[in-house]
Design brief:
This protein is α/β, with parallel strands linked by helices and about 260 residues long. The protein has a domain at about 50-105 and about 135-155 and about 180-250: TIM Barrel, CATH 3.20.20.370. Helices cover about 45% and strands about 10% of the residues. Strands 1, 2, 3, 6, 7 and 8 form a six-stranded parallel sheet that branches. A two-stranded parallel sheet has the order 4-5. Helix 3 runs parallel beside helix 10 and helix 9 (about 195-210) runs parallel beside helix 10. The longest helix has about 35 residues, at about 5-35. The structure holds zinc ion. Zinc ion binds near residues 60 and 108.
């Protein structure tokens, strides 16, 4: 079939125009598509999936159980925070050992005796100074991080030092340049003597489900906590599988604080 040159030219132009339009449409759609795929805000599920930092904390040591715990932490290459007391002199060298392994040593009172430490601010700070001398002897450094026995919102202290004792001590922390920290996951591993490792582990997992963001897990390595090492191994493996990393509390930007009830 004969087609004039002019007509062929028109067909060619029309074909080019159609192709160009097609390309333009494709580009527009693909750019709209890519805009749509950018989320405007993270869904709760996405927030939950963000890797969290886990701060493992151990109160009430050193004790006969600290050495085994340090071994697990060393094997797993995890650094933790130890809130120590002066109650077991035969294990004081565990404080030095923990520090050498890269753990953070912090204050938890020398006697851990509520009726004396919470009887008043003078008694409390005398106790802390005594403990800080012990920490200095073992590590060559003083600590400026404290965890109150029972936590900052404990109410037992009122019986010994009056209703405002915790408010007073918290205010004095600031004057003394001492930071205090509580926890947001409680394994309750010190409530009724020895707690089995699996129960501690399950409480850590359930507790973590209730928290958005980084975790400060409360555990103990006192005399009764014979399962601390085993529980810690399970806890580390679980949270590592979740993509979490572990760190010491001197690297936490905003320390966890409970709220006073009075
Ligand atoms: Zn304690």
């Amino acid at each position: 079939m004969f087609i004039s040159l002019r007509v062929r030219k028109s067909i060619l132009i029309a074909a080019i125009a159609t192709a160009a339009l097609g390309l333009l449409v494709a580009v527009l759609f693909s750019s709209r598509g890519s805009q749509q795929s950018v989320p405007t805000s993270a869904s709760p599920q996405q927030v939950q999936q963000k890797p969290r930092t886990v701060y493992l904390t151990f109160d009430d040591g050193p004790s006969r159980n600290t050495d085994a715990l340090l071994e697990v932490l060393n094997e797993q290459q995890v650094k933790a925070t130890f809130f120590v007391t002066g109650q077991n002199p035969e294990y004081f060298d565990c404080i030095a050992k923990a520090k050498e392994q890269g753990h953070l040593i912090a204050l938890h009172t020398y006697t851990h005796n509520f009726s004396s430490i919470y009887s008043g601010s003078t008694a409390f700070w005398e106790d802390i100074e005594k403990l800080n001398e012990l920490i200095y002897e073992q590590t060559g450094e003083y600590s400026n991080l404290l965890r109150f026995p029972g936590g900052s919102s404990n109410t037992v202290s009122k019986r010994h030092g009056g209703v405002h004792i915790m408010q007073t001590l918290i205010a004095e922390c600031e004057q003394r340049d001492i930071a205090y920290v509580d926890w947001n996951v409680d394994t309750k591993d010190a409530e009724n003597g020895t707690c089995d490792a699996d129960t501690i582990f399950q409480r850590a997992v359930r507790g973590a489900d209730q928290v958005d963001g980084d975790l400060v897990i409360l555990m103990h390595d006192g005399t009764a906590n014979t399962t601390a090492a085993q529980a810690t191994e399970q806890v580390i493996q679980y949270f590592r599988d979740q993509g979490c990393t572990f760190d010491t509390l001197d690297h936490m930007e905003e320390l966890v604080h409970h709220h006073l009830t009075n």
